[in-house]
Amino acid sequence: MSVPTQTPGSDRVVPPTAARRVEFISLSHLNPSTELEPIPTRGIDLAYFRRYVRTLEEAGYDYTLLPYGSSSADSFVVASAVGQLTERIRPIVAVRPNTAFPLVVAQQLATLDQLTEGRAVVHLISGGNDAEQARQGDYLAKERRYARTSEFIELLRRAWTETESFSHHGEFYRFDGFGPGFRPYGDTIPISIGGQSDEAFEIGGRQADVFSFWGEPLADIRAQIERVHAIADAADRPRPRIWVTFRPIIDRTDQLAWRKAYDYAEKIGATFQKGAYGRQQLIGKDAPQNVGSQRALEFASRSEVYDRALWTRTAAVTNAGGASTALVGTPETVAAAIVDYIDVGADLVSIRGYDTLADARDYGRYVLPLVRQELAHREATGQRGTLQADHPGAFAPGFDADALAGAR
After folding, report:
1. Helices and strands: H and E segment counts in the chain
2. ω into residue 240 within 30 of 0, thus cis?
3. Dihedral sign of CA atoms 242, 245, 249, 254 in order
4. Which residues are within 8 A (CB) of 200 and not within 5 positions of it... i.e. 6 or more apart?
């Protein structure tokens, strides 16, 4: 476990890297099946989906991610439904550049943006698993997928902004006399990418509006953010916003939260071993190809607990299949941990749980307001509030997660 010389937030000084605002993201679930309790399903439970999306809106989330996989529901169609079922939530459409021509995707996104009056966002997934890419006919080498994503981004933006027709003869895409294309509701649509490879950092720093990370220890996230910012600065462009994803496990006391976390890890591990939940069937149990999962497993091998509340056992038991690191503790401890990441520069925080609907509701009631209250205090006073100092979590002297959970 990493132990700093001083608990983050124990002084009143707001660090210069701290984001002044934060927006929250969740992931939309189409049915009640979870990693804790897999339920056989044909895909979309419409009543559940409506209830889930309504819960996100009422809970105060700002965005919801519509994920993409070869065997999942189409992210564009689901995003369109979210746009019509909500008034404020911004749908983030996950798109893999191998699945559609960029000019068509630009048209689809601009249409969604107009239907939602400027709420559309796109998250581009270059692809980190050869077998999953091959399921939809993509055999491009992994190191070339980000080059394709770079060309894809260029063409999206040109399709939205060019006032005359244009042609393009690139490495991956070729066309003649396109345009002008269908325009978004506003000037453009935010483009997000993620990844931990060198290629991901280069393209993210030079071209993306948002760069996405999975939850990692604070020191590592800080270094990764600095790397992205340095690339953006060298390219003389605005720094991308930073998106960090966690899977919080909360309860009324830290002891109850850690007991729940250990119970969850056992159930999630069993689900993964059976391949019984959604895309887990696609992930496999071999060593992951993508750098993000490799890093998550490396962190898990070194320690289960980092910083105030970061827990890696959930990554270890799932072979780091997707965003899988948890924040464990009371709502106050988890909110303080989120503020720790805001302090190093994250301004988009994705929190989604394992008991999906109940967690989305509880985060909205008990976690989001605490984070926003802290940021409001800073805005009003220029100083930190007491949230971080009062709730040290794993920074507390003698902290022992195993003992709290009754694991020994």
Report:
1. 16, 14
2. no
3. negative
4. 126, 146, 193, 194, 291
| 3-state SS class at 60 | coil
pTM of the complete model = 0.93
Question: How many CA atoms does the CB half-sphere of 2 hold within 13 Å?
Answer: 19
Q: Which residues pair with 23 in a beta bridge?
A: 348
Each domain of the chain, given as residue ranges in start order, spans 23-254+329-392
Helices (H), 126-210: 130-134, 142-161, 198-207
Q: What DSSP assignment string belongs to 357-393?
A: HHHHHHHHHHTHHHHHHHHHHHHHHSB--SHHHH--G
Give the DSSP H/E element, type plus range, for residue 169: strand 166-169
Strands (DSSP E) along 181-325, which ranges? 191-194, 210-214, 241-246, 249-250, 305-306, 310-311
Q: Provide the H-helix boundaries in 303-347.
A: 313-316, 331-343
Rounded distance between C-alpha atoms, residue 44 and residue 49, angstroms:
7
- DSSP H helical ranges for 42-87: 46-59, 75-85
Place of tokens 């989001």: 368
23-254+329-392 falls under which CATH superfamily? Answer: Luciferase-like domain (3.20.20.30)
> Which of 51, 55, 93 is closest to 74 using CA atoms?
93
Q: What is the largest CA-CA distance in the chain?
A: 69
Q: pLDDT 10s digit of each residue in the chain, 408 long?
A: 444 446 787 789 999 999 999 999 999 999 999 999 998 877 899 999 999 999 999 999 999 999 987 778 999 999 999 999 999 999 999 998 988 899 999 999 999 999 999 999 999 988 666 676 666 566 677 778 899 999 999 999 999 999 999 999 999 999 999 989 999 999 999 999 998 889 999 999 999 999 999 999 999 999 999 999 999 999 999 999 999 999 999 999 999 999 999 999 999 999 888 875 555 444 456 677 678 788 889 999 999 999 999 999 999 999 888 889 999 999 999 999 999 999 999 999 999 999 999 999 999 999 999 999 999 999 999 999 999 999 999 999 999 999 998 865
Q: Which residues pair with 90 in a beta bridge?
A: 63
Which residue, 228, 226, 235, 219, is CA-closest to 194?
A: 228
Q: Which residue has the tokens 């934060």?
A: 22
Q: What ranges make up the beta strands (E) of 269-332?
A: 305-306, 310-311, 326-329
Cβ within 8 Å of residue 87, ≥6 positions away: 57
